[in-house]
Each structure stands twice: as structure tokens, then as C-alpha cells.
Model the fold of this input.
Amino acid sequence: MVLPAALSGIFRNKQKSYKMVLILTLLDEMGDTPREVPFSKVVERFRRFLIDRERNNMPVDEPPASLGQSWQNVTFQQTRSVIDAPIEALSKILSVDFIKDRISFRPEILKQLSPAVIKELRSYAIREMDDYYRNRKTIPNVFLKNYLSQFMNNYLHAKTEPFSGHPLGTLVRRTIPQELQKLPFLDERYKVQGSVGMGNWATVPWIAIMDKRITESTQQGEYVVYLFSEDMQSVYLTLNQGVTVPLQQGRRGGYEYLKNKVQELRELLPLESVQKDENITLTSSGLGKDYQISTIAYVRYERDNLPDNEVLISDLSNMMENYALYVEYKLAKEKEEVTGLEIRSMNVSNIIQEEENSELDYDSPAEALAHIRGFIAERGFHFPSGLIENFYLSLKTKPFVILAGISGTGKTKLVQLFAEALGATERNGRFTLIPVRPDWSDPSDLLGYRDLSGKFKPGKLTRVFWEASKPYNLDKPYFVCLDEMNLARVEHYFSDLLSVIETRRWHEGNIITDEIVAHEDVKDLAEETGLNEGEEIISTLGIPENVYLIGTVNMDETTYPFSKKVLDRAQTIEFNEIALNHFPEIDGLVAQSSSVLTLPNYFLRSDYLILKDAYAGNEELIQRTTARLVEINQILGDVHSQIGFRVRDNICFFMVYNRRFELLPEEEAFDLQLLQKILPRLQGSHSSLKRALIELMAFAIGETLNTEELMEDVSSLYLAWKNTGEAPAARFSRSARKIAYMLRRLEEDGFTSFWLS
Done:
């Protein structure tokens, strides 16, 4: 059972157990019927709950210092004051009418409280409370009130004294930061820094808390900071942003940027129990004025009416929760895992998960691919027209694609950027680059091996399969790029995978394969990689349906050719079109292209595994495509390179997907399949191959050729493509050009291959 989104993260941020206790006591008072109940009864249950834990020597939060040391001595009215904080923290899901003495979940939440949800919510509250007590860190005695008071009462006088070595400088620069760093919610991620000026006393002293992942300087970025007013009558706890760097563009432009950022964050973050207006007064000019413009939210404290330490630390904790929420959002945006994220009513733990489970962010695959093209272009890379569509259709047809061509044409970059455009990066583990080594002679480097003790040690690829197969990851695409795949013989280290790929079949609506890791090795794999809490060990591990394997190959004298076994199981996309005079665009880019598309796995997953899956509704297209393949097979028969059912089916799938998604003209799509699935099979030096190539040229250009005459001199066919200028007209122009190159190599060198051009 999964809780509704509104309830799934309500205990993510907690300094005490009060939120969990409040939910448990409210559920107890409601019983089996979700309804409005007396608030006073919930308060009394809350009080009795804590008293019972105290009496039974169970872990319990001590009462606030002002109420004494035992819950048995805390009155009903005092408990009401304690309960205000968790009510405020849970205000998005709870509704309280103090006058009518009623409390309930909000109406939209009540509708979702089925018996199963209530049971899960209760279990969630108990788990979080037990976890809190198990890992509780006692808030240390940080006398923040005393420090702030000492500083504010003495600063104006200190400004009349020498700056160097002054005790107030030490208090702000060293003592207060060291004390704040003791708070459990300020861990090693945060840098705490105070300043009273640089050589001279500052008009507005400050103490900043910066998440080092986004900034370590108050000149830029966002952070939490205490700002002292010039007259020392007040201090503001603020969520703020650096002003130095933005103002380098000029005060008018800088102020506009800061104001826009303020508005953006006020809309993004919950910012409960804080002020969100422009009524912060530090000073009338200078840096103090800049800070007033840049403040996102604040809490104001008067020098002569500072609250107790507990309130000060609670306010700081609340501000840090908002800051942490923003930092996680910003990091996710930088990692391109989220797009257009609405943070309000969300918590840090479910930002990325909720975005990844969002609805499709496109109306059609064509629009999604256009977005991906823009994403790649904005990163300064250019690929030939139709290549992104071809790559997508190839992955959709079968999750094994080979990108071939000369070195430096961007094969690996295409895989990486395509993956990043879909939110799959090395950081989140959904894009993995595996360089192939020349000494690979078996699958152990990829899949794993048994060590001398008999324990299974997983390879890099097996680790990806393991992670991708976890239930909560099955809807996320994972990409593996085998770089320079043919430095070693592919059949030697990849044969097991090639065989298992062909076992893909449907099982309860999912695509499964035979196991790739033996049953007896799965337990060792689980121990090696680790399991999350509550995660069960799966019995077998095959190739998950959400993993896509892409090999890059450089075809030269240092590499190995591919066997038909490999070629039959992959789409082979060649990279040999090089436009050196293409330069990055600077202007005119579409801004939204820089965001990622968070698309579920079925955007890429195959819909057809056997021809029967695709046949209904596509009969004419499949029959027309097959008729062409029969004609091609008649040509290939003399060189023993005919295609079988596997290749036929994959070509038909490619054609069906293309028409269904309206990506490429039908002739262009078939041209790509002729180029990618047929021609790579051809190599040799015999005359029968030359005849086959001539006949394939006739098929590609759509004309009748005098084969016997061309067997004597074929130069007229390939010279037309060798010369500069407009290429000859052809029904399948890409394939015709490739055939011309292959004929030229055969004529000039006495040997030809798809891979030699």
C-alpha cells in the first residue's frame, strides 16, 4: 500500500516526535470512521500518550523547559500550547477550529482515508516515531539568545573601539558559528560564517549558513543568514541571496534579477511561519538596502524581546527546512532530473520521485524528439537530420543499437546527451559508460565471475541490471554505452547477452528474458550491492525491459569486424557524415529545450516482440515491406547473405513504429533499414558479391541496370556519388550512396565491406 502523495512525506522533517504523536492520537480518536472530532479530546490523548511513555520508561521528548521536567506535571492548557507547533507544521493536511473545538483532516484528505490508508498512515507514524527515538540527537545547549543579545547590546559601542582582535569580532566569526554547527540539522554539508566587516566595522553584520553544494560565498547563490539592523534594535533570520555578483551588471539590472528570484522562490517554497514581504528594515542605503531587496523570507526579532533559545532554534530549523527543500530542487534541476517542478506542498524526500512519476510532458513522440534535439543543440552538438528519430526508432525496435563510424563524430556523445535529455545521468546511475578493453575474451568483466572462495562478484553491467530491476526503478529507462565495442571480439565477451536478448517474451504485461545471472549467484549479488530496507531478493535476474544497450564502434584496421550473429540482433547506425563547418548556435535557441523530459520507460520500450503483435491494423505496411525484403533476399541468395525471420520482424517493427509516430516518410524509413540491417552483412572479394551490389543498386535507385555490362566496368555507378555536386536521384538515396562506395572499394582494392568507405 502506498500513501497518497499529500501524506507520504509529512514526517520527513522532524525535530521532535510531536507530529507523529498528534497523527496517532487523532487516528485513535477517530476510530474506524474518518470524521471531525473534539480537539480537546485529541489534546488529552496527546498528553496521556506522552505520560504513558514516560511512566513505562520508554523514550520520550521532555516537556519544554518552561513547563517542568515531567509530562505528569504538564496541564491540559500547557499541552495545548505544545500542540500548536505540530498543528502548524501539518496545516496542509489538518483543519482545526479552536472556537468550535473541532479537529479533522482536511476534506480532500478525508476522502482518501480508506481503511487501508488509515492502517498505512498509522504504521508510517509509528515507524517514523521509532526511528526518531532510535536516532534522536539531543539538541545541545546552544545559548543563541545570550549570544545575540550580547552582540546587539555591545556592537554600537564596539564600533568606537579598534577593529582588530575585538572580542565581538571573535564572537561572530568563531564562537557563534561553532555553536550553531553543533545543531543536529547543521551537518557537514553546511558552512557557517560570520562577519563584522573587512578591516572596518560593518554597517550590517551577518552570520550566514550556506549549503556548500550550491555556494560557499555570500556574494552569490542562496543561503540562510542572520542580518543585524544598523541601529542594533533588531536582527532578522532570513532566507536570502548573494547580491555582489548580480549587481555587477548594474544596480537596475541587478535589482530586477534579485526581485525576480525573490518572487520565484516565494512561489516555490512553503515558507510557513515566516514573513514574505518587503518590510525588512536594515538601513536606508548601501549594502543594507541591497539585502532588503534580496530577502526572500524572514523572521524579525527585537533586541529587547528576544524569544527563548527553543523558539530561536525552532525558527532556524524551519528556515533550514525551506532552504534544504530549495537546495534539493536546485540540484535536481542542475542534474536535469526535473522540469517545471512545483514545490509547494512537497517535501525534500519526494521531489525527484514525484517528478519522475509525473504524466508525460509531450503530446506525441515527434514532439518529445523535437525537444530532445533542442536539448542536444543547446549543448553545442549537431547531428544529421533524422538521426535522433532513427536512433529512437532503433531503440524502440530492439534495445541493442550499434553506432559505427570514424573516430570523433560524436557517437558516444549522442548516447550520453540522449540519455540526459530523458533524465538519465551518471550521477543518478541511469547512464553508464563502459569502455571495452582489447583483452576481453569472455563475459566476466561485464557480467561477473566467481572468486577463489566461490563467491559471485558482479560486473558493471550486472550492477546496472540489478538496480534497474528494482520495482521502484522499472519505469525509468537505463542506458549503457559500451564504448569502442569492437576493440575485442564481440562474440567472445557479449555472446551470452546476445543469446539472452533473443529470449525476450511477454509475462503479465512485462517483457522478461531468461536469466543472465544464475539463481545461486543472486544472493551474492544482493550482498555485494546492498539492499534497501524492506527490499526483497529477487529469485532470478535477466535483462530488465528498461535497460538499453548501445555500442559505439570505430571501424579501422585496429578493430574486429562483426559477425552476422551480432548484426542480426542490432540496429547499426553509421556516422560518416561530417559537417566541419557547422558551428554552435548562440541566438534563437528555445529556452525550454534545456529542461529534461521525465518520460516513463514505455516511451522507449518495445511494443512488439513477434510479428503477430504488430500485424493487426498494419497488414498492408507489413506486407509491402516484406515484399521488398523478398526481392532483396533473391539478390542476396547468390552470396549466401539472405535475411531470416528475425531481421524481417525487426525491419517491420521499425516501419510500423515510424508510421504510428509519423516521424519519417515511409521510403526514408525503409532506406534506413536497408542501410542498417541489410548492407552491413555484405563483404568479400568475389564477383558474385559485385553482381549482388549492382542489383541492389538497381533496387535502391529504382531503375533497371545492365548488370552484365556493369560487371565489366562499374565506375559509372560510383563516380556519380564521388563527384561533388548534387547526388543522383534515388528511391533509397542513403543506401545507394553506400552501395556506390562499396563498389568503388571492390573495384579499386579487390575487397569491400560495409565498414570500409
